[in-house]
Amino acid sequence: MKDVVVALIHFSQYAVIGYFLVLNTVYLVLLALAGRTIPHLARRRRLTGVDDLATSPLTPPVSIVTAAYNEEPTIVESVRAMLALRYPRHEVVVVDDGSRDNTFERLKEAFGLVPLERVAPGEIRSREAAQSVHVSTHSVPLTVVRKHNSGRADSLNVGIDLAAHPLVCMVDADSLLDEDALLTIAQPFVADPLRVVAAGGVIRPVNDSVVRHGQVIEPRIPTRWLPRIQVVEYLRAFLMGRTGWSRVHGLLIISGAFGLYRRDVLVEVGGMDADSIGEDFELVVRMHRHLRDQRRPYRIVFAPEPVCWTEVPDARTVLAKQRRRWHRGLYETLRRHHRMLLRPRYGVIGMVAYPYFVLFELLAPLIEVCGIVVVAVGFALGIIAPPMALLFVLAAFGYAVLISLLALLLDELGLHRYRRLGDLGAVAAAAVLENLGYRQLTAVWRLQGWWASLRNGKPEWGEMTRVGFATPTPLDHGSHATIPEMSETGH
Amino acid sequence: MRTVVQMILLVSVIEAVVCLLVLCVSRLVRNRRERVRREAATATRPLILQAVGDEDPDAGAVLASLDQRSWRAAQPTVLRLLGRVKGGSHASLTEILLSRGIVDRALTDGARPRGLKRAHAASLLALTGHALRTDPRRGPEARATLHRQLTDRNATVREGAVRALGRVGDADSARLLLAQLRSPRAVAAGLTGDALIRIGPAAVPALIEAVHGTGGEHRALAVELLGLIRDRRAVATLSTALEDRSAAVRASAAAALGRVAEPAAVPALIHTVRADTSARVAVAASEALGLIGDRGAIPVLHEALAADGYRQAHTAARALLRLGPAGRDALTEGTFAGGSAAAHAREALATAQLVAGGER
Question: Is residue A44 part of a domain?
Answer without folding.
Answer: no
